[in-house]
Amino acid sequence: MTGNHPLYAELETRLARWKGTPRALVFGSGYLANLGIVPAFAGAGDLIVADALSHACLFGGARLSGARVAVFAHNDLAHCESLLKERRGEHARCLVVTDGVFSMDGDRAPVGELQALCEAWDAWLLVDDAHGLGVVEAGRGSCVVDGQKIPVPLQMGTLSKAVGGYGGYLCASEAVVSLLVGRARTLVYSTGLPPATVAAACAALDRIASDSDLVARPMRNAALFCARLSLQEPASCIVPLVLGDAETALAASADLARQGFLVAAIRPPTVPEGTARLRLTFTAAHEEEDVRRLAEAVRPWRERATA
Hints:
Layout: H1 6-19, E1 23-27, H2 30-41, E2 47-51, H3 56-65, E3 68-72, H4 77-87, E4 94-99, H5 111-120, E5 124-128, E6 144-145, E7 148-149, E8 154-158, E9 168-172, H6 174-183, H7 185-188, H8 195-210, H9 212-228, E10 238-244, H10 246-258, E11 264-266, E12 276-281, H11 288-306
Parallel strand pairs: 2-3, 2-4, 4-5, 5-8
Antiparallel strand pairs: 1-9, 6-7, 8-9, 10-12, 11-12
Helix pairs in contact: 1-8, 2-3, 9-11
């Protein structure tokens, strides 16, 4: 009712500039952002096409919208296109949603190809860049591919990962932001972020924009770890090691904890049955020696999983 604190405008200006969009809008959290954005752009009579591994908040927003939801196999462009061919003509509007970097697998969405599909089928693309901002593509996130900015109309993300604070955001056009200010219920009816949190995010974004070595370190550490264990080169700073059953993943996590490493065991229902895993997330604070020691600590569990 009383408008923004001036720091909000500063943060939104920094976000828009860093992501290459005209405007940005800050939400109370990433979860609140998707629960507000998706129903603002799709409703009864519309179609949402979602990657099967999209974050729960994207599916939560889709359910709240009342739109028809069609799910395509993870990163399967042919399946996504077949759903658009089959169903797009039956609906007034269409929204395609995906993570940019997938939180449990660490792989990236084919954002360029998805945007091309959306342009061909008169759909809008929403990319959740929670795990891309500040890390991949020199910190600019997953809507940049090999240095080229993809014109994704809805670039959402969080301030709680690489930025190290709290909150969510959408980077988009002037018209989109103006619409959401009046239509996104999780913005209109939810408490805003404290000024100190907004100021911290501003400072973090300035650091991301100015310290290229800091930004490069998470990917460099992930690559070192993968090279030590002859794993595929990582697409992000998230590296999964699938162990199979939940008991093995828990035992591995406990073993690593005894050696001084905090590595989460991820179990069903977060991931499918039979794919319980260690989820390793590398940061700029990890030293190379830490990464080498971790690789040796993980090696017996990897060998057991591949035996």
